[in-house]
Amino acid sequence: MMQSKKTKFGISSLSLAISFALAGTVVSSQAFAADEEVAKKENVEKIAVVGSRAAPRSIGDSPVPVDIISSDDLKKNGSTDMIDMLVTSVPSFNSRAQPISDAATLVRPVNLRGLPSDSTLILVNGKRRHRASVIAFQGGGINDGAQGPDISVIPGVALKQVEVLRDGAAAQYGSDAIAGVMNFVLKDASEGGSITVSQGEYYEGDGAATTIDGNIGLPLTDDGFVNISAQYKTADATSRSVQRTDAAAIASAGNEFILDPAQTWGNPEIEDDFTVFVNSGFDINDNTHLYAFGNVSSREATGGFYYRNPHNRGNVYSNDGGNTLLVGDVGLAENGVASCSWVGNVPANVGNVLNTSEYQAMVADPNCFSMNQIRPGGYTPQFTGKIEDMSFFTGIKGTSGEWNYDVSAGTGSNKATFGLKNSLNPSLGLATPTDFDTGSYEQVETTFNVDMNRFVTIGGLEDISFATGFEWREESFEIGQGEEASWVAGPYAEQGFNIGSHGFKGFGPESAGKNKRNNIGVYTDVEAYLTDDILLGVALRYENFSTFGDTLNYKLTAQYMATDELSFRASHSTGFRAPTVGQENVVNTQTSIVNGDLIQTFIAPPTNPLAAFYGGETLKPEESVSYAAGFVYEYENLFLTVDYYNIEVTGRIAQSSQITVEASDYDALRAAGVEFPELISAVTYYTNDFDTTTQGVDIVGSYSMDLFSGDAKFSLAYGWTDTTVDKFDEETTDLGKVRRLEDGIPAHRATLTWGQSWDDLSTSIRANYFGEYYATHADDTSDWGSETADAAVTIDLEVSYAVMDNLTVSVGANNIFDQEAQKLKDGTLGELGAVYYESGPFDYNGGYYYGRVNYRF
């Protein structure tokens, strides 16, 4: 192996290449322990490879602040979902539960630094992770329309550590790195392992979850390893619901078919959630190393939808707002001759339509029908999905002469298969099925990388780090056709009955198909110490996409070591995020809330005739300009960082607001090729609609000391995030959507943690502060469904005891004092069966207690 000389700070020159490409804004408290023995005990590896095209470097001395979160730290949480683990460990990382949000219920969107999930690049072992097939159609404002990777499939048991960079790195990695980079480092031990069993449930007595996970390291002869991790879990659904006022009124009028509650707001039921990760490596000789890693994962989820009122649901029960029932004429559908004498004459603006003489006479006529005959109490569809995820990467790395190299290739796919239970295709009349296979989305990505680095001398500057590389990537997005009954226009469509499975129309032949693109990228990194105290770096990356052309981005970084304890750092970069193939081509139908009313919204590609009629255009890449500056202070057991960042994004891609399909446009839409426009209430599409500026300050401090005859560690992380929408299209975006982008997450968030340990006993208590935020009910940004929510504090506690050297028992609770989420305001509570706003920054389900047993071998 090539050796390089060290600077006075003990960092090898070889490791300097990381800094110019990554200028994160915070270093987590987990990353720095004053006592190296404590660090070894916690198995925290003090090395980060995030962004390095040369070699990893020591985090403690790095001019690039990165969060390092160990596997043990991740587990100090009742949840085994990777998203929940990171939310409590990374202050700028946010996510929320999605009780009724179409496909976003299956893959929760996240955000880092106030930007959507597809603005954060996800790596596994330093290699780009494929994105999820699911697109967040109702992603809580910030994530509306986002298509980011599904990190929930990565189990904590498979990880050595997680590295979180909080600065743009598009100049090094390309698209998706506007907000930062997260690298999930897999375990690589060749011996030992663990088995863990966890069980917990919410204070309300629901949501019971069981998780079994294990890890084992095996030797691959004397020169290699195979490390295998597996996890299996299930989780019951939760309900934080009250009976809807409309359903209660119909039930009190004598309708015995109304369920209580008619509609459920809560977490989906998760079944057969399993994942297996394998990481392996083999030393061919002293200079050459082979590696391979990958995963196979699957889970099934069943979540709720909105209640369909049996008196007034448009295009199902009524077409005039609930004054009269929508009555089908069998003869008109079969032979074009009207045969039903009750069309339009059954009153629905009554307490219980089933008891009226008009309804009873209508159903007695075999030539007439209404959907009440199948669903007399209305219905609430259940949205089901199966997520199948896999990946495989292999490569070879080593040294050849003065060069270090890494050549790799890999592929990954994520498939979401959708279904709908307890629904109808009203256009099929009484012959409609009630359960549907509605089709699928599948995302596939293939990547090939060549990375090289070495040191050069130019003039009086020695050991200049030089790195370069090439990347080829292809991605595809495929829509799989659903069963015919889920999308077909039945014989009653022309009478005003909804086409396709109601709530989530299946994908028909016109929607099905595969779209793909490829791109190439070339980068160059140069970095050098101008003096012993001043480090400068520059990165440059060129990319060319087959769909929209090329882009060139750069990054500059600098660090100044004022003293051995104090250093200053700064960065400036440009970046981009390419629209995903899914965003360019996705088709869907969703049910949305506007002013408390349910409307059917068609999501169309921006170039689709319907979308184009209302202003849709071909998507272009987002572009960004970032600035960051801060300092690091480290003295004995104290570590402190303060960082400011500013990210300007132009042409930000988002889902437009619902655009009403006007009756006056029907003829023009038919001429443009849109079928049955009268059955579409509104359309939405993806657009480069916004220019935004996101700025913030992150303050992170940690302090270790001896306390109560044991070891104590205190850590404080505070984040301020502020987003301003500088420009938007008033024709396609309402002010409520703008406010969600600006205020949808708390501007202020803080976490205070006290970890205390003795020989066999350890405790961890964490206080989480969430500032005020703009709360919305589902996707309704009207005054009816939104308000400013109050700040709140939740407390988490865990106690662990080592029964034996290899056996540890833990008990704990998240939100131990059962802090309530923001309740819906007066006048809204109960209208849609909900108690809490679903847009909150912490779990609206309330307190959660758990127990865990861990055996190590």
TrEMBL record:
Domain TonB-dependent receptor plug: start-end pairs: 61-181
Residues making up the signal peptide according to the UniProt record: 1-33
Domain of life: Bacteria
Compartments (UniProt record): Cell outer membrane
Coiled coil: none
PROSITE patterns: TONB_DEPENDENT_REC_3
CDD domains per record: ligand_gated_channel
Domain spans labelled TonB-dependent receptor-like beta-barrel: 399-816
Keyword tags: Cell outer membrane, Membrane, Signal, TonB box, Transmembrane, Transmembrane beta strand, Transport
Membrane topology, as annotated: Multi-pass membrane protein
InterPro entries (UniProt xref): Beta-barrel_TonB (IPR000531), Beta-barrel_TonB_sf (IPR036942), Plug_dom (IPR012910), Plug_dom_sf (IPR037066), TonB-dep_rcpt-like (IPR039426)
PANTHER family, per the entry: PTHR47234, SECRETIN_TONB SHORT N-TERMINAL DOMAIN-CONTAINING PROTEIN
Similarity field: Belongs to the TonB-dependent receptor family.
Protein name: TonB-dependent receptor
